[in-house]
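Colleagues,

For the teaching module next term, I've prepared a clean inverse folding example: a structure given as tokens, and then the sequence designed for it. I'd like students to try predicting residues themselves before seeing the answer, so please don't circulate the second half yet.
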């Protein structure tokens, strides 16, 4: 793909718990042949370190991303292929407010914030643009592009609910990270992949991350199709 024709999805990772959700979404996008621009907030680095043991470094982001994507939701290394050599991923530092996606003239398909903390939700709803993640989200809204906000918090207080309503009214898709059980989950990865699949559904990106409801009771007991974007639940 030439630089002129490149139109990526921006994936923003905020500091909420749920870094396996972000990894599953990234794997799903890349498995579908999509280009990705990645923004990892400063707070999310602490969460990533706590949940996976991976220290995400600007100078070594590709190696760290490969290690992250190779881990399953249970933290087991080598569960997935990781980052293929030809994967089209560009990384932008969270403090780089001059980055390409900070401008509406930079072509992107939209933005997926996975997971979205309540602080991130508030910043986007109020238009604070205090870092690149929030700035890109504001640009996505003003350019009328698709913004999916996978909020990960419970319970939700009234102020956060107001911020989520504001995002909905601004055109964002508010997608709580709420796994479902009708898809026949037998492993933590299945629950993570369900949420990631719903994020990709909202973005219109094809995948086989979870079993879709087909109107038949007991369908969750049948074998499930998989693709390169999900795990064997061993």
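(Answer key — instructors only)
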């Amino acid at each position: 793909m030439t630089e002129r024709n490149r139109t990526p999805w921006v994936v923003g990772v905020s500091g909420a718990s749920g870094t396996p959700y972000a990894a599953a979404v990234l794997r799903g996008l890349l498995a579908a042949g999509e280009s990705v621009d990645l923004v990892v907030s400063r707070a999310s680095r602490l969460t990533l370190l706590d949940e996976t043991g991976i220290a995400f470094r600007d100078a070594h982001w590709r190696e760290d991303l490969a290690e992250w994507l190779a881990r399953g939701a249970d933290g087991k290394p080598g569960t997935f292929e990781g980052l293929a050599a030809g994967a089209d991923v560009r990384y932008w530092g969270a403090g780089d407010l001059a980055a390409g996606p900070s401008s509406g003239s930079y072509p992107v398909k939209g933005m997926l914030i996975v997971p979205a903390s309540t602080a991130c939700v508030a910043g986007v709803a109020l238009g604070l643009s205090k870092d690149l993640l929030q700035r890109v989200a504001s640009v996505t809204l003003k350019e009328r592009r698709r913004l999916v906000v996978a909020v990960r918090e419970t319970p939700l207080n009234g102020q956060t609910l107001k911020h989520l309503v504001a995002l909905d009214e601004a055109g964002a898709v508010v997608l709580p990270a709420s796994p479902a059980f009708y898809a026949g989950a037998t492993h933590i990865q299945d629950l993570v992949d369900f949420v990631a699949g719903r994020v990709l559904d909202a973005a219109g990106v094809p995948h086989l991350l979870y079993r879709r409801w087909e109107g038949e009771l007991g369908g969750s007991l049948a074998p499930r199709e998989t693709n390169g974007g999900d795990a064997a639940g061993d």
